[in-house]
Write a structure and sequence with these properties.
Blueprint (H helix, E strand, L loop, with lengths): L3 E4 L2 E3 L5 E7 L9 E6 L6 E6 L6 E3 L7 E6 L4 E6 L8 E7 L2 E2 L3 E5 L2
Parallel strand pairs: 2-11
Antiparallel strand pairs: 1-3, 3-8, 4-5, 4-9, 5-6, 7-8, 9-10, 9-11
């Protein structure tokens, strides 16, 4: 059984930065591509960024391109999302996803 645990969320002012982490249990981490999703109140869950198995390929939602960077460390079984130049519209619960597994989600709030 795989468990995904997010950390690093919180409250930040507009223009600030946060780095989310997603720690995975189990030995299958380097087998799958991974993604970050987010869900804002009253909205559907949306894909934010994805990364291939060894990190060679990444994709981003248009709304975060140039501001967010997804990366992974397979030796540490950890996925990251570096978020810069944060905007109030980035406020959401952020989830990491691998294959059929999801983390519990972590709140990111961008507000002055």
């Amino acid at each position: 059984q795989v468990q995904l645990v997010e950390s690093g969320g919180g409250l930040v002012q507009p223009g600030g930065s946060l780095r989310l982490s997603c720690a995975a249990s189990g030995s299958t981490f380097s087998t799958y591509g991974m993604s970050w999703y987010r869900q804002a109140p009253g909205k559907e869950r949306e894909l934010v960024a994805s990364i291939s198995t060894f990190g060679g390929n990444t994709n981003y939602a248009d709304s975060v391109k140039g501001r967010f960077t997804i990366s992974r460390d397979n030796a540490k079984n950890t996925l990251y999302l570096q978020m810069n130049s944060l905007k109030p519209e980035d406020t959401a619960v952020y989830y990491c996803q691998m294959y059929v597994y999801w983390g519990q989600g972590i709140q990111v709030t961008v507000s002055s």
